[in-house]
Design a protein that fits this description.
The protein is of the alpha+beta class. It folds into two domains: 223 residues, Rossmann fold (3-Layer(aba) Sandwich); 136 residues, OB fold (Dihydrolipoamide Acetyltransferase, E2P). The chain contains eight helices and 20 strands. The strands form four sheets. A six-stranded mixed β-sheet has the order 6-7-8-3-9-10, with helices on both faces. Strands 13-12-11-14-20 form a five-stranded antiparallel β-sheet. Strands 15-19-16-17-18 form a five-stranded antiparallel β-sheet, with no helix packed on it. α5 links the parallel β7 and β8. α2 packs across α3 and α3 crosses α4. It is elongated, with a radius of gyration of 25 Å. The two termini are 47 Å apart.
Length: 381
């Protein structure tokens, strides 16, 4: 594991008495790709600006390679930034846009050194042959690469990226996710990336920091954040989740909808109220007679490689992702393996997420299906 490069300790940021960052601690390793992820207003951009030196925290300390840098201005930090708006110089070609920062350096670089470093960056960002191109004639993705090359050519140890893909269309964003990871590995430096897009975070990051309300809720590898969320907010924000009330009967046994399920979780008190997360892809549709639970299909949306199926279980609607077609109004059974169930302690986010009757605009018009009184609506043990 690489050594620690940046440390935030007890960092708080308040504007006119409004706390936007609340006493956060964060360690960032050298040469890692770390993503700050969360909704608008969660404090992720403020955290980035504190690292870059654009904002001084109201309280707390910022360390870079063991040295406190609270009072160090941005241009003296070994850090550079790429913003959502690339701010390229339209009167300069690609070469001169990238070379601009090098020409301001002191001691002054030679013409040959500037040329060598610019062409090195053009190679890394896959723009060799574009050096004489007018930047206004470039595509959005190409302009993005010029902005990244311009930020990297001074050879910072850290590159900060504030939602840099937000202006690109979906296909280009996906392409640039791969490019950014490739560039980070080629440069072998630290990338700190800000986004509200969980897919970007999962696709590119070595570590993900999930934030809300100015606080850090969870830090971990993408796989751990997705598979082992610590509360309902993280479970809902990272991917799609069915989050239901449950009772932890004992180690390895949780009860939801009056039925007991085997799970892998341990360490809860007997009969402790909990939140239970079940990912849509972890639910198998089975014949009614084999179902651990049974419900009514209320809506189907075709997504290309799978169907999004909304199923009503006693008034609570689940999302199931499956390649099997089930008609609206049909009764289905479901089966969940123990490793498809994740149990979390109750938190301030409990009860706020998980029912797909109002999850998004796609599901806003789903009508309630009355729970059928006969056997099978939610089978009991």
């Amino acid at each position: 594991m690489s050594k620690e490069l940046i440390r935030l300790r007890g960092c708080t940021m308040a504007f006119d008495g409004d706390v936007v960052l609340n006493n956060i601690d964060l360690n960032i390793r050298d040469k890692e790709f770390l993503t700050l992820l969360g909704p608008s207003g969660c404090g992720k951009t403020t955290t980035l600006r504190i690292i870059g030196g654009f904002t001084v925290p109201t309280s707390g300390d910022v360390f870079f390679d063991g040295v406190r840098i609270n009072d160090l201005p941005p241009h003296k930090r070994n850090v550079n930034t790429v913003f959502q708006k690339y701010a390229l110089f339209t009167h300069l070609d690609v070469f001169e846009n990238i070379a601009f920062g090098l020409r301001q350096m002191r001691p002054k670089l030679t013409k040959d050194e500037i040329s060598r470093r610019v062409f090195e960056m053009l190679e890394i960002v896959s723009l060799r042959g574009f050096e004489n191109r007018d930047v206004s004639r470039l595509s959005g993705g190409q302009q993005q690469r010029v902005a990244i090359a311009r930020a990297l050519v001074p050879r910072p140890r850290v590159l900060l990226l504030d939602e840099p893909l937000g202006a690109l269309d979906l296909r280009l964003r996906k392409d640039m996710q791969n490019e950014l990871k490739r560039i980070q590995q080629a440069m072998d430096i630290t990338f700190i990336y800000v986004t509200h897009d969980q897919e970007e975070a999962l696709a590119m990051s070595d570590s993900v920091v999930v934030m809300d309300g100015g606080e850090i809720l969870q830090i971990g590898r993408p796989e751990d954040i997705y598979n082992e969320p610590e509360n309902a907010f993280v479970a809902d924000f990272i991917g799609e989740s069915n989050i239901v009330d449950g009772v932890m009967i004992s180690d390895g046994t949780v009860e939801i909808f009056g039925r007991r399920f085997e799970c892998l979780d341990r360490g809860f008190s007997p009969s402790e109220p909990v939140d239970v997360v079940i990912r849509p892809e972890d639910v198998d549709i089975v014949p009614l007679r084999d179902g651990m639970l049974t419900g009514t299909v209320t809506n189907i949306i075709f997504k290309g490689v799978h169907y999004d199926i909304i199923v009503d279980f006693k008034g609570f609607k689940w999302l199931i992702q499956t390649t099997d077609m089930s008609p609206v109004g049909g009764r289905i059974g479901i089966k969940i393996d123990p490793d498809g169930i994740h149990v979390m302690p109750k938190s301030r986010y409990s009860g706020m997420f998980g029912d797909y009757s109002s999850y998004s605009a796609e599901y806003d018009e789903i009508s309630d299906v009355a729970a059928e009184a006969e056997t099978g609506d939610a089978r009991e043990e």
